[in-house]
Amino acid sequence: MTDAVLNQFTPGASNEEKIDATKRVKVGIIGTGWIAESHIESYLQMPDVDIVAAADLIPGKAEKFMEHYGVKGVHFYPSHKELLDNEELDVVSVCTYNTQHAIPTIYALEKGVNVLLEKPMCVTIEEAADIMRAEKKSGKILSIGFQPRLDANMQMIKKIVESGELGKIYYIQTGGGRRRGIPNSTFIEKKTAGIGALGDIGCYSLDMVLNAIGYPKPLTISAYSSNYFGTNPLYNNPADAARFNVDDFAAAFIRLEGDIILDFRIAWAMHIDTPGDTIILGTKAALRIPSIDCWNGTVGGPMTMYFDVAGQQTQTTIPLVENPDNKGLFYHKIRSFLDAVKNGGTAPVPTSQILYNQAIIDGLVKSAECGHEIEIKIPEI
Ligand SMILES: NC(=O)c1ccc[n+]([C@@H]2O[C@H](COP(=O)([O-])OP(=O)(O)OC[C@H]3O[C@@H](n4cnc5c(N)ncnc54)[C@H](O)[C@@H]3O)[C@@H](O)[C@H]2O)c1
């Protein structure tokens, strides 16, 4: 067959990205740590982006960061405040640790700047509500950095749910974890991270299933959390064990609107390889989404769908699908946000959904603290 014939059947052949480089975007980066590397590596691939400012609380860190990437002409600031007070920007990437998500985001929105905020949205539901109030008042675009949403396999889960093939969904088990995989740095202390495995990887599991089923409102939660591994020098570097004061394991039983049960667990460390696959049970069929060792919000292998055909119990494999290009999820997370800013679109990952993700995280912390089930209260925005 000739290429001309084959190309008729090649999906995406006409999906070439067209970026108008004459319409430029002025970008600032707040927090130049680990995840900021993925942000700048994506920005540097985009012909319409000018990186004009960067801030970090640690003196000299932002300068070193830009030097490493060979980016010239950047203005440097000692915190988000000076950066936002002194620059006219179109967008900022907020790449700070979790306890510094709300303050820079709210300040940026107040200054009329569009924000791409890293996940989790923040630490508490009160912060989430304050962020959303600032967003509403500003009329600017705020998107939360859940790049697994852009993965074709994640999108397949949502397509399967929306096709109706599963029937009415009544029970979901989700979460995952690592036998050993405790991070260090700013991830393990309340003063910087606020929450541990829950905010690092738990929020991804929640987004995987809640996004698929349309983010129903969470109603009640009964939860548990612990940190037996993070605090133990047998399983963690002694210096890190001594300062470790966040969760390394969390589990919860959550009731969602629409009579749906969500059974959730997440771990940075435990004495087993996985606490189980994600499963979605419906009245017509069920879906199994394999877990992955290094739990990071991706589909761990081909999914299986279970159903009856003419009274016979059967199952089918949903093969993993390729992403349409090899630019990576991070590139697309940033590109979809910039396109929304440039074209007057809406946030690719809106706070109206992630509010419920945050409400579950907040409820989990509160229920685990008091040791019984609690009602999840969603604030008025
Ligand atoms: N989307 C992903 O795949 C992904 C992966 C890893 C981390 N993250 C998220 O990214 C965030 C940052 O993680 P990290 O590993 O880069 O942390 P990090 O500690 O390496 O970097 C954060 C930086 O922000 C700076 N900072 C804090 N408050 C500031 C402020 N007000 N103004 C200026 N600078 C400030 C700190 O000095 C630090 O250098 C976390 O919320 C984490 O959950 C996302």
* Class per helix and strand makeup: alpha/beta
Low-confidence stretches: none
Task: Provide the gyration radius in Å.
Answer: 22 Å
CATH classification, class level of the largest domain: Alpha Beta
Shape from CA axes? globular
pLDDT averaged over residues: 95
Ligands and ions found: nicotinamide-adenine-dinucleotide
**How widely separated are the two ends?**
58 Å
- CATH architecture annotation name of the largest domain: 2-Layer Sandwich
What does the main sheet amount to?
9 strands, mixed
Main sheet: strand order: 14-13-12-11-7-10-9-8-15
Overall number of domains: 2
Portion of residues within helices:
25-40%
CATH 4th-level superfamily of the largest domain: Dihydrodipicolinate Reductase, domain 2
Query: What is the number of helices?
Result: 11
Number of β-strand runs: 15
Question: What amount of the residues lies in strands?
Answer: 15-25%
Helix-strand pattern? HEHEHEHEHEHEHEHEHEEEEEEHHE
Could you say what the CATH topology of the largest domain is called? Answer: Dihydrodipicolinate Reductase, domain 2
Question: What does this entry look like structurally?
Answer:
This protein is α/β, with parallel strands linked by helices and 381 residues long. The chain has 2 domains: 25-148 and 328-350, NAD(P)-binding Rossmann-like Domain (Rossmann fold, 3-Layer(aba) Sandwich), CATH 3.40.50.720; 152-322, Dihydrodipicolinate Reductase, domain 2. The chain has helices at residues 3-7, 34-43, 61-69, 80-86, 102-110, 125-138, 152-163, 197-212, 238-243, 329-343, 351-370, and strands at 25-30, 49-55, 75-77, 91-94, 114-118, 142-145, 169-177, 218-226, 249-256, 260-267, 278-282, 285-289, 303-309, 312-318, 374-375. Strands 14-13-12-11-7-10-9-8-15 form a 9-stranded mixed sheet, with helices on one face. Strand 13 (303-309) and strand 14 (312-318) form a beta hairpin. It is globular and about 70 Å long. The N and C termini lie far apart (58 Å). The protein binds nicotinamide-adenine-dinucleotide. Nicotinamide-adenine-dinucleotide binds next to helix 2.
